Fold:
Amino acid sequence: QKRTGIKERRYAADDEFVEIVNTGTSNCDLAGLELADFVGGATRHVFPENTILCPGQAIVVFGGGSPDLSGSSFGGAIVQVASTGSILLGNNGDKAILRQSDGTEIDSVEYSSSFGADNTSITRSPDITGSFAKHDEVSAVKFSPGTEIDGTPFLGCTEAPSSAPSSEPST
Structure:
């Protein structure tokens, strides 16, 4: 059973982001996991130590810029900027990959040019479990980093969990 998964992504240079949600019932330690893209296969972000998601909590990784790292602008989600300085997902189709450091894929989302670079994200609809759709086709807004499609915060914790033992994401 998959416990973490890519829920939403957007491409627009510094505003580009990937959102991951812990759908399990226990804390999930992302430390050392990687975000990569298929075109080029390069690692774009390595999650640092102590990147722990509570059940129901989201993390948003931005491709650059200066997002509010406190998470207050993103529904209490953990917010990080890509460790390489960019995510570089292609606008004409690509694949965003969450993987272990040995390359074992945990989750991915592949998309075609039909999702285009029209300043909207793609998101799962219904949230978490559905297939991917353009955000503005399932909501009145074009993206919702760190929150559900309708802007409601996820029900996970809004403060960093303790460093108590946590589980690795299921593959």
The longest strand covers residues 105-112. The radius of gyration is 14 Å. Confidence is low (pLDDT under 50) at residues 160-168.
